[in-house]
Amino acid sequence: MREIPVERVSDVVEKMCIDSNIFLGQDVLKAIKRGLDLEESPLGRDVLEQLVKNTEIAMNTKTPICQDTGTAVFFLEIGQEVHFTGGYIEDAINEGVARGYEKGYLRKSIVLDPLRRVNTGDNTPAVIHTRLVPGDRVRIVLSAKGGGGENMSALKMLKPADGEEGVIDFVLETVERAGPNPCPPIIVGVGVGGNFEQVAFLAKKALIRKLGNPNPDEDLARLEEILLEKINDLGIGPQGFGGRITALDVHVEKAPAHIASLPVAVNINCHVSRHLETII
Amino acid sequence: MTKTLCPPLADKDVENLKAGDRVLISGIIYTARDAAHKKLLELMERGEKLPLDLKGQIIYYVGPTPAREGEVIGAAGPTTSSRMDKYTPPLLERGVRAVIGKGLRSQDVKKSLKDNKSVYLVAVGGAAALLKEKIVSSKLVAYEELGPEAIRELEVCDFPVFVANDVHGNDIYEIGKRKYERNR
Predict the structure, then answer these.
(1) What is the CATH T-level fold of the domain A148-271, as seen in this structure?
(2) pTM, whole model, 2 decimals?
(3) d(CA A214, CA A224)
């Protein structure tokens, strides 16, 4: 058994919340710069130039990249040889989120009740997905997920006969309907298979993969390539002003499904794709 | 070419703008999101006085992050405009000449923009640190209890926006997409 005090988790989470909101990942920045090389639309280029400049200003002035500093979503993989001491792990994560959002001057964007809509004041509770894994380590992945892209996401239970073509059509339909609203250039996370709740989880998980890394599964890598090309042919462009770069990347994840089902989910992330990983 | 705007706006200021134009705003603009819009409309329905004179003004849809000590404001990029759609036409009728946000507007809003000779401007969503640098002062006007959603008077200098919907009925989102769409 390896003992880990939960206070250590709070400290790690606090830092991850602040860092992810101020420093844009190199993978995303590289994709935006590559977009700038490829974009033909003058307005689209203007937008991408502003985005590159924005990340520099954010970094130099310790200002959040975007005022929507997101819902703190955690993917937690806990080695089954780990024993947490000094408190409950979920409380420790929420403590880290509350401290990070306060100390980092980040916006508190969570309401306690979805209908009564009173702000909790510290951006908690976080959304925490936990998995037990072999070993004695803890892997914490944070996605500080903005509301704009989340609101344009969608899920559909297709018929198995709809096949890959049905999946492609639904992804395109969702991105086209979203148009400028999720702040393109976007990153598109697609879940295929599993069941109703698992497919949404897959789509979200697809978004935390580093940009520029295709799925190791050859079929899925090919599907990602087809989807990226077709999405960029929609012409929506940066901020929806028209152009070549609507999406920076498309990531697809799959899971086994019921013989009667072909679930598909599309989770959209804006260009401020904040994801960080720490292993304890 | 980049155009400039200094509120309060007159007819000629907005008539001169075309969808797709780059614009730099200098002067006073006012912030308001869903909650503040709702309160303003309630006052208007009751026939009460508003906490600000809307004539010729520009409203910016923004909910900034908290300001660090010694700073004017935190990160301050635009939020999704469609959440304000149902509140926008009455404010345009009351004299608002331009709103700044991001994303699509409803048919009702587009019609109201044309009818009231007003424009829909958009700032780059997610360029919040860059936009923050263009805000030189911030003053609370009303609804402090709404926190980031309170109405503030912002003094801006060369605040960069694009014209999305002009008074002539043009829409950059439609024009741009049509131009770069490739047949599927």
Answers:
(1) 60s Ribosomal Protein L30; Chain: A; (3.30.1330)
(2) 0.95
(3) 7
